[in-house]
Design goal:
The chain is of the alpha+beta class. Helix content is 16%, strand content 8%. It is built from one helix and two strands; from the N terminus they run H-E-E. The model has no long low-confidence stretch (mean pLDDT 78).
């Protein structure tokens, strides 16, 4: 419980690394600790390899030294 004047400056933000999630899921499956009936892959396309060429324009307010005007970047993986 937070106490006024003592704890209001602390921030708690739980974060997990994806490699940790994969390791826990692998161990749980190996030792049959649970069975999964549904998995939500809402980010399955993030950083997927691209089959076609995709160019992205840099925002106009970003200036790169040695280049005038806007730059186009070729994506190697999806966003």
């Amino acid at each position: 419980m937070q106490v006024e004047g003592r704890d209001f400056f602390e921030t708690y933000a739980p974060v997990v690394n994806m490699s940790t999630v994969r390791m826990v899921m692998t161990l749980a499956a190996k030792h049959r600790l649970f069975t999964s009936k549904q998995v939500d892959y809402c980010n399955a396309s993030v950083q997927a390899k691209l089959d076609e060429t995709v160019d992205v324009w840099m925002p106009s307010d970003i200036k790169v030294e040695g280049h005038e005007g806007r730059l186009a970047l070729k994506l190697k993986k999806s966003l």
